[in-house]
């Protein structure tokens, strides 16, 4: 007997410059980048100031919509609350709906990174050898916000409490694959009958100075300011030189077909298949021949009960990193072979930067809109004439295409690879 069908019935999204998914989709369709000069990076004198960041106007809107005192909450929690309420409204659900059935919460989010102001505060409690005196630090006056009070699951704990979810509550901290893994985990739980309703996706806020320094030390960030902020994320181009930091959040409502039909919900799409593997190749790249990425894609397609030719569109991981783009290109050629010329591809990070855990969830929502509207989003800064892999059919203009099946990839540092197959409702 085939496992239960899983419907997507709602989603919420916040990304650089935008507060909802439809606006983001239209912005990218209009070939407008969400990557800008980050005032903080400019103030600190960083050699490259580009980032896809949430600006002060967006935060004013997010804080104003928070039910309680936003100033007493970590920003990740405020963002998660806003996007969750947006997703529930889109699905036609009340916040109490999760208490009435077996339900789950699956949220991707990586480590909390202190900013320079917080590190300055910590530095006041260093001893003469430069070590943190925890006794002195803990005796300081209590504050709602301080670096050591933050948890990687803080937004998960908040949402679970506010929505009354007790059955399955998980936080995925799996680098760049965390958002896709959260959706995949929710899909699995519904498919096998453990739960009927799930909220899943990712929340990530790492477009600040500490992540910049960490990723730059790995040589992972673009350092060609001459491209201009909007031109620096250029997946699969010969002159690509690294990714651009981004941030944002997306949460999806998943339901079993039976639960959705009982309440008369309108499905927006379906999760058809999912695969996740952890390789042991290298911390920052995969097998150079693309074999491990290919294995993940093939497993997701097989899990969906499909043959390769059923896939019409691929939302690539496409970070603009030299090695990762190359690995993914070789993997796509291994999986699809001669069929590759008939499949359109896009790389959303060209327009919004790389929001790490958030990227897979944001890309899943954009893929669902492609399925619904029959429009493939352009890859910004892409020119086939100067592309390293011109055999890949990456579109650089919004393209009308009736799409029934999308494969979306997320391949994370640390060797965590995830692919998900989405279908039209």
TrEMBL record:
GO terms for cellular component: cytosol. Residues 3-424 form the Ketosynthase family 3 (KS3) domain. Pathway: Lipid metabolism; fatty acid biosynthesis. PROSITE patterns: KS3_2. Keywords: Transferase. Belongs to the thiolase-like superfamily. Beta-ketoacyl-ACP synthases family. This is Beta-ketoacyl-[acyl-carrier-protein] synthase family protein. It comes from Pseudomonas mangiferae.
